[in-house]
Design brief:
It contains 5 helices and no strands. The protein has helices at residues 6-10, 23-50, 55-62, 75-78, 87-90. The N and C termini lie far apart (104 Å). The chain crosses the membrane at residues 28-51. Residues 74-86 have a biased composition (Polar residues).
Length: 92
């Protein structure tokens, strides 16, 4: 016919790798998959942020403007740390 058997395509007739688990190849494959997901996410962000007509909407949704924290002065914060204890602390 015109079909080659699977064993002859693998190069070693009669011997296969079925059922043999390798931790290192599995770890490499999973790491490669995670890396590809990161690369694809990066390129999708570039596409949406710089090419799409609705880029401003995506930009404001993805990034939040950082604002300076509000400064509030409470009595505990305004007292110097080295001040002597008050009289109310000595009454016991």
């Amino acid at each position: 016919m015109g079909f080659a058997s699977t064993s002859s395509l693998l190069g070693s007739p009669g011997f296969s790798q079925a059922g043999k688990f390798g931790l290192i190849p599995t770890t490499i494959t999973l790491g490669t998959g995670v890396a590809w997901l990161g690369v694809i996410t990066f390129f999708c962000d570039l596409l949406l942020l710089y090419v799409d007509g609705e880029a401003h909407f995506y930009w404001t949704t993805k990034y939040e403007e950082a604002k300076a924290p509000k400064v509030t002065a409470s009595p505990e914060q305004t007292e110097p740390a080295s001040s002597p204890p008050t009289q109310a602390a000595h009454v016991a």
